[in-house]
Amino acid sequence: MSGHKHKKQFGQNFLNNPNVIHNIVAAIAPQPDQHLVEIGPGEAALTEPLLDRVAKLDIIEIDRDLIPALTRRFGHKPTFHLHNTDALKFDYRQLLANPSDKLRLVGNLPYNISSPLIFHLIEQADIVSDMHFMLQKEVVERLTATPGNKAFGRLSVMVQYACQAEYLFTVGPENFTPAPKVDSAIVRLIPYAQPPFQANHFGDFAALVKQAFSQKRKTLRNTLKNWLTTEQIVQCDIDPGLRAEALDVADFVRLANLYSQIKQEQG
User: Fold this and answer.
1) Is residue 214 located within the same domain as residue 255?
2) I want to staple 30 with a disulfide (CB 3.0 to 4.6 A). Which of 20, 53, 121, 148 is the partner?
3) Mean model confidence pLDDT for the chain
């Protein structure tokens, strides 16, 4: 597959270092009875070591030019199932043999779709036991950031509402072909069976978080003025003079739940 022309529109940077591949597979720790899904296998650096260790491996690959080579290499293996489709639009539920099953998701995600893809996957988090992704280091820092950190933002809140997020290790540009201009990192996301702080209306919660971070330099009093009054923000034990980046997930859940309640009362 070394003859493949790397495509900018798919953000293709393929792993080439066996030691890094070994470390990623060790972090995933695939087991013989598990059902894994690999998003964007590229030149199959992770595919091969995963295939021989699991009960089933579904592959999601958008680039049609990679399909023939992947099929030639792995099509004879009973664990291998290939889907030439867009990971951003794919319904992962259709991969489940039984409703009680869970998927483990892995992948070296293209930088240009990483945030929207993670939002898409969070919506299906109830069927996922964990996710191990290689992303741009800056994105992993945002996923795992704590309140008050400059990397903390909408992505941090939405991911940490649904999952435990852990920064595992950094992967330098020299481990890829072609070499990207930035560092990458591996993140582990483990969806909660039940979020520790429960939003009564997830749509309201997601919309309020988006609004709160829409103008990062402004205080909650200003960004949420059409959502909650200053008094209502105080009612949630939150200082209206704070910026969104100072709040934790529990704070946003309290604000969103009050907003949902008021909206319901007003009919």
Assistant:
1) yes
2) 53
3) 92
What whole-number percentage of the chain has pLDDT above 90?
81
Helical H runs in 29-93?
47-51, 67-74
Give the length of the chain. Answer: 267
Count of domains in the chain?
Answer: 2
CATH of the domain at 217: 1.10.8.100
Backbone angles phi, psi at 161, to 5 degrees: -65, -40
* Structure tokens, 208: 């309020």
Crossing angle of helices 154-162/249-266, nearest 10°? 90
Give the list of residues 6+ apart from residue 31 with CB closer than 8 angstroms, or none: 53, 54
pLDDT at 17 over 90: no
CB-based contacts of 123: which residues, under 8 Å, 6+ apart? none
Torsion of CA 60, 90, 168, 195, to 10 degrees: -150
Mean pLDDT, residues 148-154 taken together = 95
Residues 49 and 162 in one domain: yes
- CB 181 within 8 Å of CB 234: no
At 176, list the tokens.
């890829």
CB atoms within 10 A of CB 243: 17
Evaluate whether residue 2 is within a structural domain: no
Query: What distance in Å separates the CA atoms of residue 59 and residue 81, rounded to the nearest whole number?
Result: 6
Q: Does residue 197 belong to any structural domain of this protein?
A: no
Q: Are the C-beta atoms of residues 113 and 138 closer than 8 Å to each other?
A: no
Residue 248 lies in domain: 202-266
For residue 85, what is the domain's CATH number? Answer: 3.40.50.150
Domain boundary among 168, 191, 214: 191
